Amino acid sequence: MSLALGVLCGCAHAQAPAPSLPSNAAIDAEARRLMAAQNVVGMGVAIIDRGWIVHVGAYGYANLADRRALQTDTVMYGASLTKLAFAYMVMQLADEHRLDLDRSIAEYLPRPLPEYERYRDLAGDERWRRLTPRIILNHATGFANFRWLEDDQRLRFHWAPGERFGYSGEGIYLLQFVLEEGLHLDVKAEMQRRVFDRFGMTRTSMRWRDDFRPNLADRYGMNGETEPHDERSNVSAAGSMDTTIADQARLWAGVVRGEGLSPYAHAELLRPTLPIHSAHQFPTLVSDTDPRADRVGLAAALGSVTFNDASGPMFFKGGHDDFTGNMVICQETRQRCVVFLSNSVRAELIYPELARFILGETAMPWWWEYNR
After folding, report:
1. Which of 69, 170, 190, 253 has the most beta carbons within 10 angstroms of its beta carbon?
2. What is the CATH number of the domain that holds 190?
3. pTM (2 decimals)?
């Protein structure tokens, strides 16, 4: 019933004409203006409308010292955008009835979770049996973002699984482990075949490739400090994706179209299932709330966060570390997205204004995403 009502609501919004996008030249000019104002080294921007790519641009530098220009096929770090790409792959497994989103992970593992070395910290706490793929992808495990952030660097539950939202890379690590150990899947191969190859993402990989090296972006911190691109040898569903802005345009165009998923699975991927009341996304374990979250209907979907907007439902996903700032924001009914990929974390300072310039005013909760 709720899914059907959601589809009906989407159709109602679809009847209203979408405002026109700025011209590509205007988008390019505004991106460059904002980058100059905030000393952003390099950035890629992609625009998707009605499910199709309408603009891809690259600005600034892949390497500032060499004045080497960032290009649309320059490889950058995808960071946590990987998580939603991974969720898309998981939904294909659910479509094939190889994985049940609401089935305990205990039913997939050949041994109890605490019997595995990396999860022995959970010995004696049977709450791990309440973990399901949906709870994990909703970021409702109860784990810290990473165990190494704990004082003793040990994994533990801070609340019961499913109780509330708390962003956790540890949870995504666990679901990857379940697929590898319980379903005997090679996550790198599955991501390559089901996502990257499907969408023609020829310069994207879950693991470092030597052919990336000739056109690779170095990374820049908030104060201009530089870090070479990390040649990741380990596959991490939480964030090891190397990619380009051109490939990210292909990915998110396919995602909003639902390519490779049944209509039900696509709706389920983006369906808000867990209300979010927290004042900010990070730090992840604080209990502060903000009434603005309820006003926009902030909620966790499978790998993304959703909210209500005048245009209809919207979803977004960020990717961040000290040297990286990425963001995708999509209007579901219009199948319209902006995708930002940057080798400079300072780009996060301009994303709110640039997103407004492209999409117009939305209810996007920047206050929650960036804790400011």
Report:
1. 253
2. 3.40.710.10
3. 0.95
Q: Each residue of 301-342: pLDDT tens digit? A: 999 999 999 999 999 999 999 999 999 999 999 999 999 999
Please, which pLDDT band fits residue 209 given cuts at 50, 70 and 90?
very high
User: Residue 25 falls within a domain, yes or no?
Assistant: no
Tens digit of each residue's pLDDT (9 = 90 or more) over 145-171:
999 999 999 999 999 999 999 999 999
- Indicate whether 121 belongs to any domain: no
User: Rounded to the nearest 10 degrees, what angle do helices 24-38 and 351-359 cross at?
Assistant: 160
Distance between CA atoms of residues 258 and 51, nearest Å = 9
Domain contains 241: yes
Cα–Cα distances in Å, from 19 out to 51, 229, 311, 329? 16, 39, 10, 16
Whether cis (ω within 30° of 0) applies to the bond prior to 283 is yes
User: Does residue 308 belong to any structural domain of this protein?
Assistant: yes
Give how far Cα 9 sits from Cα of 2, 12, 191, 253, 330, Å: 10, 5, 32, 22, 17
pLDDT surpasses 50 at 10 = no
Query: Which pair of tokens denotes residue 183?
Result: 């379903």
**How many separate domains does the chain show?**
1
- Structural domain boundaries enclosing 199: 53-99+183-370
